[in-house]
Write a structure and sequence with these properties.
The chain contains 9 helices and 14 strands. It is an alpha+beta fold. The strands form 3 sheets. Strands 1, 4, 10, 11, 12 and 13 form a 6-stranded mixed beta sheet that branches. Strands 5-14-9-6-8-7 form a 6-stranded mixed beta sheet. The protein starts with a helix and ends with a strand.
């Protein structure tokens, strides 16, 4: 039996399906950090535990010695779901939009991008919480020695050598890196991309999917990305270098609308990332109103695995 409820649910499912592609396609920080998502309902202000590899100490058990159990809580990090964001738009003729997929994308993609940009901005603003390692660079141009110092600091802070390390910079710093006259490793090792006397020390990325993310390549053991959301509150640009477990992004489902209110919701979920899409009627505009919202929290979860890389670019 076809009812208005069935039609409403079908409409919002179709709209939700259009949300999936731009969610992941527009993430940079959100794809590189420790991302934790569960299909459980939560409320703003809830605290969630996310699993990270614990730091344990190897004990020497001499003859007659005892084993000292170590706390299993070492592998948990807590993040508060303190941000509930939304982007709302109206569709005057929803049936026409559903009949023309490109028109539906025209409505949906800006809302999803607005959500993603807010998440990216919040993660980028966590640079000030990297306090374990002393910041490298200054309000001056980026250089080989600055990048080398950042990599050395993370190595000294015991970031596992096999872990991927990321350097996220703004557009100007990214351009300046590409124009550094040479990088020592490329002079001595002689990679084809840089080579002796080469003018670009960044070699091709070796991480699957790096291209769509905007990675230019690998430099000083960092995969280099550029982001529009790197903070520059004054004359100093606060670029960030980190490994995955330095930062965490926790996302949880928002509840379904109260029955009988006329609102219908569907979840768009992909790659440990999810949003809720609610369709309701807006009587003042005589249109169907769609609200895309997301409940999340982000935080530094392993301080020694990240560092500020400052520049003036």
């Amino acid at each position: 039996m076809i009812t208005s409820q069935n039609v409403a649910e079908a409409i919002v499912k179709l709209v939700a399906a259009e949300a999936l592609a731009p969610i992941v396609g527009n993430l940079v920080f959100g794809r590189l950090v420790n991302r934790d998502y569960e299909k459980t309902v939560a409320q703003a202000g809830d605290t969630v535990n996310i699993a990270i590899p614990p730091i344990l100490v190897a004990n020497n058990i001499a003859e007659g010695g005892t084993v000292t159990p170590q706390s299993p809580n070492l592998g948990n990090a807590q993040i508060v779901l303190n941000t509930h964001i939304e982007a709302t738009f109206g569709i005057p003729d929803v049936t026409k939009a559903l009949a023309v997929p490109d028109l539906l994308k025209t409505y949906m993609q800006p809302a999803i991008i607005a959500i993603v940009e807010k998440i990216e901005t919040d993660i980028a603003s966590l640079y000030s919480n990297f306090t374990y390692n002393q910041a490298v660079g200054s309000a001056a141009g980026i250089s080989e020695s600055v990048v080398d110092s950042a990599e050395t600091a993370l190595f000294t802070a015991k970031v596992p050598p096999q872990d991927m390390k990321f350097l996220i910079v703004n557009a100007a710093t990214f351009g300046a890196l590409r124009q550094v006259a040479r990088f020592t490793e490329f002079q001595t090792v002689g990679y084809a991309a840089g080579g002796p006397g080469g003018t670009n020390g960044i070699i091709d990325a070796n991480m699957p999917g790096a291209g769509p993310l905007g990675a230019n390549g690998k430099l000083k053991d960092f995969l280099v990305f550029r982001s529009q959301f790197i903070a520059k509150p004054s004359t100093t640009t606060y670029n960030m270098a980190f490994s995955r477990d330095a930062l965490g992004l926790a996302i949880r489902r928002l509840p379904q609308p109260i029955p009988g209110t006329g609102a219908v919701a569907e979840y768009a979920e992909m790659g440990d990332f999810g949003v809720r899409i609610v369709m309701s009627y807006a009587p003042n505009s005589l249109a169907q109103q769609f609200t895309v919202d997301c409940l999340y929290g982000c935080a530094v979860i392993r301080n020694n695995f990240g560092i500020q890389v400052q520049s003036n670019n």
